[in-house]
């Protein structure tokens, strides 16, 4: 058969996890990986080694047989890549006009304000004086962010004094990433909601999930978010659909939210499969990876319903176990779905995740966390 | 990480469908494919092109970095391959002593008799006279089979006269496959049960399924088998476990059964993932493909429970649609899980399957059959 070809820029675990979905659907996944050791390198059907900043690598990614569509597993896509896609007549999804709101937090906040969607109080800052004024107006503590380049807690800093912004302000003045400052939201918890949208029209939203972060990195996700008021769940889904529509997102969009007293505030956007959606592989009829492929190929979207009353995903960050391959023998919970990303272990690096499903939330959560700890550190099976 | 390596002999859809499971677990799947066009070629992490009868191909399959284990996606494994594995000190699972009972139907029937497991009346035959005697003793109609080489209805012939056996008897006399004859079982329906067994001990059985064959080829599978008496379900699971244990099967074993008035009769054995178990990909906590990898690597086995009250798998055989890639746009049922094998369409060839899950059996069945028909022939979405 003449398989559709999806080209992906970026060879991390998000591209890797698209491969099983592509295999099932008979889609050829061609991935631009930074090296042969990349997480996606083995799993992809075809690989091109190179960086997105390398015009020759992009040329090979788009070469005949041409991909039907090009998509991304991260936001750091140079504008030249979009130009190359346009020159080649190949659709880039999500497109440059959408992706810039996931690339740049200042653009994102400004657009959310325009759309009347719930931002925290925020402002761009260029001087310590501006930082000081913002701190004074918002309780003496705030979140400083670089507009571009951040992920997993990087590019984010909680500050209590303007002096703590000094280095980033200096870097910004020298042409480094612009800065914004946000009021520290006194949230009850963090939620996330994912939606897929296809260019031909049609969207599908997964259940709203609760996400627990540790040191700025996602640690566990529970689907659905426990005891979430029905009106807030509905509001979260409305926000996701409104963002997807207004920004003309194609593919999967993740909206991270803060739940505050009876209301929601937008935290971040990602226009790709996202850690908060890994639970869908084992817990939903359609995984975010299959859905992303369907959406960017403008195919009918799959059912986003959960298969089980509770699904819990626990990340595995690099820990005491040096080689994760040995973990497979140690996890004896027969319902623990282990996902290893084929990456070298480094402390704190995301190297895998474990998902459990079940009728009891507490038990399902405990099983996921226990299995992830065994994968990470070893210990009793 | 130092991924475990599983080598697979045979590059059809069964090897292909092992790849997503291997990717999730961080296992490297190295597949011996007959050509670059093989179903598994794109999906496998590493491929070796060649036939199992080619010693050089086997050498490359077993070369450094050496696989941890070698397994099969079909039964047609020359004894030289087992010898090569033994020479290289690499485990072959299932082993030669087990696999011969899946390779040779005469050996299988004889062994089932020894074990006191339920065979139909049967006999080896070498002459028309023997065929005539068997027909006379069993109602004038019987099933003639070649002991080796059959699949999907090939090597099986229902006969009513000894003359219909003439060509096969002549071939057998000239060194072709030996023949056996079996009483035609007046069955209510066909069932199948799958079990996984690891060398270190431990087995796991999936729910018993009902399998509907059309023209000798599996057409639909319903899990669990509807309205199956509890004692028969228990008996089916006992048979599967007894066969796995007695034959020292490692990996996944499928036992195809006939349900007759209040009893079961063994039809065939397969020591590998099997068409009757494709439903487990979308319908069970652990798919037969993940479980086979776990079992042959002697890892803890996964949970075999169903995720939904009903799961129905419908095969897609080659039909009116010439290129299946176009089918993805035509199936609008959001819960239809489409699996395409990347094979060229030929009439009647297995080229994919569709799985649906749901609370209502009739509806779930209808959805699977409808979606498979759209994939096969096109038509309204």
UniProtKB/TrEMBL annotation, chains A, B:
Enzyme class: ligase
UniProt xrefs under PROSITE patterns: ATP_GRASP
Record GO terms (molecular function): 5-(carboxyamino)imidazole ribonucleotide synthase activity
Organism: Demequina muriae
Pathway as given in its UniProt record: Purine metabolism; IMP biosynthesis via de novo pathway; 5-amino-1-(5-phospho-D-ribosyl)imidazole-4-carboxylate from 5-amino-1-(5-phospho-D-ribosyl)imidazole (N5-CAIR route): step 1/2
Designated name of the protein: N5-carboxyaminoimidazole ribonucleotide synthase
Protein family membership: Belongs to the PurK/PurT family.
Chain segments annotated as transmembrane: none
EC nos: 6.3.4.18
Keyword Ribonucleoprotein attached: no
Span of domain ATP-grasp: 109-297
Assembly description: Homodimer.
Catalytic activity: 5-amino-1-(5-phospho-beta-D-ribosyl)imidazole + hydrogencarbonate + ATP = 5-carboxyamino-1-(5-phospho-D-ribosyl)imidazole + ADP + phosphate + 2 H(+)
Gene for this chain: purK
Alphabetic keyword roster: ATP-binding, Ligase, Nucleotide-binding, Purine biosynthesis
Pfam families tied to this protein: ATP-grasp, PurK_C, RS_preATP-grasp-like
Task of the protein: Catalyzes the ATP-dependent conversion of 5-aminoimidazole ribonucleotide (AIR) and HCO(3)- to N5-carboxyaminoimidazole ribonucleotide (N5-CAIR). Catalyzes the ATP-dependent conversion of 5-aminoimidazole ribonucleotide (AIR) and HCO(3)(-) to N5-carboxyaminoimidazole ribonucleotide (N5-CAIR).
InterPro entries cross-referenced by the UniProt entry: ATP-grasp, ATP-grasp_carboxylate-amine, ATP_grasp_subdomain_1, PreATP-grasp_dom_sf, PurK, PurK_C, PurT/PurK_preATP-grasp, Rudment_hybrid_motif
Residues reported to bind ATP: 105, 145, 182-185, 190, 267-268
Tagged with keyword Manganese: no
């Amino acid at each position: 058969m003449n398989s559709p070809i999806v080209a992906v820029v970026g060879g991390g675990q998000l591209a890797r996890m698209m491969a099983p979905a592509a295999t099932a659907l008979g889609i050829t996944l061609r991935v631009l990986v930074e090296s042969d050791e990349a997480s996606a390198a083995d799993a992809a059907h075809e690989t091109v080694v190179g960086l997105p900043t390398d015009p020759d690598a992009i040329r090979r990614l788009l070469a005949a047989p041409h991909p039907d569509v090009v998509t991304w597993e991260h936001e750091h896509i140079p504008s030249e890549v979009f130009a190359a896609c346009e020159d080649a007549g190949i659709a880039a999804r999500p497109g440059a006009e959408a992706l810039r709101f996931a690339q740049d937090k200042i653009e994102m906040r400004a657009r959310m304000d325009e759309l009347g969607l719930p931002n925290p109080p925020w402002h761009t800052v260029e001087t310590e004086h501006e930082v000081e004024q913002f701190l004074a107006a918002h309780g003496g503590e705030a979140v400083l962010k670089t507009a571009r380049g951040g992920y997993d807690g990087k590019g984010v800093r909680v500050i209590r004094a303007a002096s703590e912004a000094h280095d980033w302000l200096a870097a910004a003045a020298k042409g480094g990433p612009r800065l914004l400052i946000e009021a520290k939201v006194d949230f009850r918890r963090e939620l996330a909601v994912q939606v897929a949208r296809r260019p031909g029209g049609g969207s599908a939203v997964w259940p709203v999930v609760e996400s627990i972060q540790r040191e700025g990195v996602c640690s566990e996700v529970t689907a659905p978010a426990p005891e979430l008021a029905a009106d807030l769940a509905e509001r979260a889904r409305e926000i996701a659909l409104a963002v997807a529509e207004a920004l003309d997102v194609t593919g999967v969009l993740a909206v991270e939210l803060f739940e505050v007293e009876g209301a929601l505030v937008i935290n971040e956007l990602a226009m790709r499969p996202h850690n908060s959606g890994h639970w869908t592989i084992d817990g939903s009829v359609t995984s975010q990876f299959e859905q992303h492929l369907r959406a960017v190929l403008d195919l009918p979207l799959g059912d986003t319903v959960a298969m089980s009353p509770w699904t819990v995903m626990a990340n595995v960050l690099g820990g005491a176990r040096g080689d994760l391959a040995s973990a497979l023998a140690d996890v004896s919970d027969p319902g623990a779905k282990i996902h290893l990303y084929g990456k070298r272990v480094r402390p704190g690096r995301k190297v895998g995740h474990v998902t459990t499903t079940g009728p009891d939330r507490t038990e399902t959560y405990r099983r996921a966390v226990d299995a992830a700890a065994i994968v990470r550190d070893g210990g009793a099976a």
